[in-house]
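Check this:
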Amino acid sequence: MGKEMDKRVALVLGGSGGIGRSVVEKLAEEGYAIGIHYSSSKTNAKQLEASIVARGGQAISVGGDVANEIEMSMAFELVEKAFGSIDVVINTAGIMLLSPIAELDLNDLDRMHRTNIRGALVVSQLAAQRVSKGGAIINFSTSVTRSQFPNYGAYVASKAAIESISMILARELRGKDITVNTVAPGPTATPLFLNGKDEHQIQHLANAVPLERLGEPNDISEVVAFLAGPARWINGQIIFVNGGLA
């Protein structure tokens, strides 16, 4: 399938659920051809792909471990083969394992660093090599790098690394007309965020936000769509999407 002249193509890592799914849906509505990446949720990815195609859109599902450069290279190649090129790469993939630092299982630290840091580097490296002129690379951090909630130490360490990777990559791509930004959501009602939290904890986090609610995935995907397309003068930035959480 050749690329249409006015068709932008996006690869969404972690696109089968949560914020990633919302990003896929939003970009599909805006006419993007989409590569929906999944790690383990192949069924969810295929169902989302079928839903987009049934509505007249273009989408394919691609699997792989974001920290495995061979599998990710194959995923990029499949999207390029299907749609002609890649204009936007959005990496929402990540894992979150919470613990006080004093009690941290270092195996959990290694797991998060492999997926969150190595994965971000693998994806960012491939995106830097393959994204078309006029394109965008969008990585994901967390607002907890600033709000500094207890128990998030190891997770925040991995996300702070992603912020630095993205800001440096934006400068390394000078002259290529490719933007690189990081989106840092606040408390957002996704399975990843809600897992392991009771109602009191959830309400406490919602009340910490001046708008007095949790974010919804579409709150985040609206910002991602802006950075992916029209926001060509935003580059090398961390965008906190959190309803005003301090």
Remarks:
- Residues 9-187+218-241 form a domain with the Rossmann fold fold (CATH 3.40.50.720).
